[in-house]
Specification:
Number of strands: 14
Radius of gyration: 21 Å
Low-confidence stretches: 1-11, 39-46
Oligomer: single chain
Distance between the termini: 32 Å
Strand order of the largest sheet: 11-6-1-2-3-12
Strand content: 15-25%
Helix content: 25-40%
Number of helices: 11
Structural class: alpha+beta
Mean pLDDT: 81
């Protein structure tokens, strides 16, 4: 067997995962507040604050005092393979104590029952029934971590640009200047470029200068997606750090007084959220979990699978000659024990 390739295990990765969940918490809160604004005529700050602080009681599903939410991030329209969920995170949220524990699920885990990687399960599940995509991934991930998955949130990241624009842009402190001469132009992925063998028409050159910058949605999207810069800024670690900066900027803007106390902006945010996020939670459950996530911001831990739980077998016919991960012992018992020990 080939030794598993270690995943990045650094504070940036952990911080990024938690920021993603915080943003999703904010987005879910906006989703609920938007419904209140539209259906109940709530149009003043005191009512909004009261709805957030004192949501009506609801029966939120849980297990041993925790609510387990599966977060799936897909590229969305305008990108190749729009329904692949390359972001797969289990967020275990305490109902009574202020903590959240996050488990990143490697996208290359092989699932023999569908003869494909876990990141394609959402796509395959939707082929016969659109609602079955999320249900299938919930079931498969539950089998991997050994915990029931109570809810799912599917985020279409193609709405990222609109979200930033509705917030009025984000402020970013760029640490290093860089130039990317091969940033892909959407819609030109298959352009023959008039016979140009280098296919230069498929790309544009983008550049960023060190220092403080206010970015609109289009600029922020290019900043986080760039992967072909020369030097250190062309690495995945640098890309994760840039994503962290943008997500931090969104968090600050979304939680600012100018956003939370502006019913018009909240309603506009909801229109974006309604288009790009899907969840099986009802409104009150969304509000309760949003409040718990935001309360636990200073007491959260993020985990990636440690070396030893998974192996990277040879790329042969059993796995359609793909690079995959499988459980070391042939089953998920060791992973169940690892997750359970961290939750306890």
């Amino acid at each position: 067997m080939v030794k598993i390739k270690k995943e990045p295990n650094n504070s940036n990765t952990h911080r990024l995962n938690f920021l993603l969940v915080v943003i999703i918490g904010i987005v879910l809160g906006v989703f609920f507040l938007g419904k209140l604004l539209e259906s109940n005529g709530i149009n003043n700050p005191p009512q909004l604050v009261s709805s957030f602080l004192f949501p009506r009681k609801t029966n939120v599903k849980s297990h041993e005092g925790r609510v387990n939410v599966l977060i799936l991030g897909k590229a969305g329209s305008g990108y190749p393979a729009p329904d692949l969920t390359d972001t797969i995170i289990v967020a275990s949220i305490s109902k009574d104590k202020e903590f959240v524990k996050l488990f990143s699920i490697p996208r290359d885990i092989w699932i023999s029952s569908i003869r494909a990687k876990i990141n394609s399960a959402y796509y395959w599940g939707r082929q016969n029934d659109e609602e079955n995509g999320a249900k299938l991934v919930k079931s498969l991930v539950s089998g991997i971590v050994g915990q029931p998955i109570h809810y799912v949130v599917v985020v279409d990241f193609s709405g990222f640009k609109e979200l930033v624009d509705v917030l009025g842009g984000v402020d970013v402190d760029i640490e290093n200047s860089f130039v990317d001469e091969k940033y892909p132009i959407a819609g030109k992925e298959n352009d023959e470029c008039g016979g140009d063998r280098k296919f230069l028409c498929r790309f544009e050159t983008i550049s960023f200068q060190k220092g403080k910058s206010h970015m609109d949605g289009e600029t922020a999207l290019k900043f986080v997606r760039s992967r072909n810069a020369e030097g250190d800024e062309g690495t995945d670690l640098a890309r994760e750090a840039r994503q962290q900066k943008i997500i931090s900027g969104i968090e600050k803007k979304a939680l600012s007084v100018t956003t939370l106390f502006n019913p018009v902006k909240l309603l506009n945010l909801w229109r974006v959220v309604r288009e790009y996020i899907k969840t099986d939670m009802d409104g009150p459950a969304v509000m309760v979990l949003t409040r718990n996530i935001l309360s636990a911001r200073k007491n959260a831990n993020s985990f990636v699978f440690p070396e030893g739980l998974l192996i990277n077998p040879p790329e042969d016919q059993r796995y359609d000659f793909q690079y995959v991960f499988v459980p070391k012992g042939g089953n998920w018992d060791d992973t169940h024990a690892w997750v359970n020990s961290l939750l306890q």
